[in-house]
Amino acid sequence: MLNWFFFILIPISGPETDFNDFTKAPPTRQQVQMDTYHGQEVIDPYRWLEAMQDPEVKEWVKAQDRHARQMVMSANNRAKLRYRLKKVSEFHAFGAAIQKRSNLFYSQRLPGVATSKILVQKGLDGKATTLVDQKELPKDHEIRQVSPSTKGHLLAYAVSQQGSRWATVRIRNVKTGKDLDDVLVGYQTSFSAITWSQDEKCFYYDKLRLPQEGGQLEEQLEPLGIYRHRLGDDQSNDELIYRHPQHDLWYFSHQLLDTQKKLIVNGSYKDRRTIQVVDLEQSSKHPILIADVVANLNVVGSNKNTIYAHTTHEAANGRVVAFDIATPQVIKPLIDESNRPIAGVTYAAHHFFVSRSKDAVPFVDVYDENGDHSYQLEPPRSGSIWIAPGDRDTQFAFYNVSNLANPGTIYKLDPKTGKSVAFRAPKLAYEPSDFKMRQVFYRTKDGTAIPMFLVHKKGLNIDQPSPVFMYGYGAGNWSAYPWFQPHMVVWMEMGGIYAMPGLRGGGEYGKDWNDAGIKLNKQNGIDDFIAAAEFLIEQKITQKSMLAINGGSASGPTAGALLCQRPDLIGAALIEWPALDMLRFDRFTGGQYWTWNNGSPENELEFENLKRFSPYHNLKKGVCYPPTMIVIGENDESTVPMHGYKFIARMNEMQGCSNPILLHTIWGGGHYQYGVTAEASLDTWADELAFLCLALNLTPPPELASVSRP
Questions:
Q1: Which of the residues 33, 295, 529, 706 could staple to 313 if both were Cys, CB 3.0 to 4.6 A apart?
Q2: Whole-model pTM?
Q3: Which tens digits make up the pLDDT trace of 71-105?
Q4: CB–CB of 24/651 below 8 Å?
């Protein structure tokens, strides 16, 4: 019998620790900077916090973090929360399997850790052995990306330090378990990828200009092009294969045609996409332009001289098309658009796996190579489905199914029959089927119907208000669906509800839905988030004193805007790794690539819109803002930490009551990295739950109830 615990969150008359017992946040000096945008002057009193490597800034961050940790450590239930989190997290999750000839590769990870091991096994029934182990790396290093070679004899793996996206690439011999002498730098895991040659003697990769020492958080990314590295050569001898002739900000994905003599280059810049083919035997020859569209266009595979791509060109919900390099720029429809938007396409084992969604609920249609529909995949359990990339000639395909309570199970699929069997599954200290997900719909400000997932423990009394943790995204064309988070498992065990509305700006209903929530339409997604909170309160699912909002990364502006526009509507805000200064987001690292979603401060009309919703610029003096905690990574190179620094400083200046405004720093952490170790991640999750209990005036009962399951 396995023993496990659950909590019941009980609202009480006051918090365990009175916020007034604490001193205010450490002060922040002002150094007023006045900027002029399109003839308008905009004040920026905390510009000095953008110098993220400056000793004074670092000391300020340490002081703010000490203040935050002092408060969350005061929660009487924090130790209990961390203990339960540790039990929930004592398992290894599995990444989807990739088959290369007779070798099968897959990752194993601990919650909160990107990758702990890379495993390899001979054949589908062979014994798995560890090929690369996190433990063999220096303490502050982690495995970020892996790329098995064409025949499965070699593995390229990228290792980064202290949460950075900048990585060093090494090559491991699968048979000997030893690294080759090759070492590559200038590899950035957000933008770089590796394509192996058929003979495994070389590979192609994207190289970026390395920032100067200390400039990783401040210098803009600059792609240098696609290079060819021959094994055994020094990187200085690598050959430039392709670089866009007009713009340094283009970035690329790439793969080889079946002939292995031509490289398919799939370029992206803002909302423009291209496909070109480079002759590798005559790399100086001008590439063949296959397609150039203002729409999504993603290469998914090739067969001989035919290129397959997923595109929204002349199909708002997406379709799959084919190009023959003998007749460039001639589009051949293969899989037609349907009324369900395509989220992604994988080509493997002689089949197309087309991921779609119905009201944001994911499903997968399977097609043969002629584009004829074979069947709809029916996985053994519900959840988000990720089809692993695979070779055209493999017999089986592999996919991973996960949800808020299930970290992911790998299934092996016979595409011909549609039959799936579990291949690898984690052993958990709780039963995922003890949680229930339902979907509701509500009307937003302009009358649009918005879907929202609600996940909670079975048996929860839904006839009375419950604590709700509401996450909103509405960006990047992503269809919002609950993904596994250990601390949210504990939140639900405590009697809390996890809510996820599908805001406009996401991909829930295709391109039109996405367009309705980006750039000049950004306020629509914010209104959708506000309306979700109002709906939860009106329906008595929760009450405002028990409602916490959450957003992160590209959804930071949406969560921050709700906090600024409707602080009266919520009991707490927990915002992670956010972008919050929307007039300067494009000046750091890869921020220039977000203008297609946010708009650009350089465009006068888009500047006016950005200024209207930018959280940093819309805080008001004397307003009582709810308890707020901003979580940032010290080394976050995506949404750099200056956003959190400046916002917290400005918010503490403006705060009109004693509610705390906290900055919690993940030391050494990168983007969406809760800790540099599994133990550090547990501490962060415990801090977040303790903050929510304090902010929402919640506490578990004096004694924890113990139940058993077989």
A1: 295
A2: 0.94
A3: 999 998 899 999 999 999 988 888 888 999 989 99
A4: no
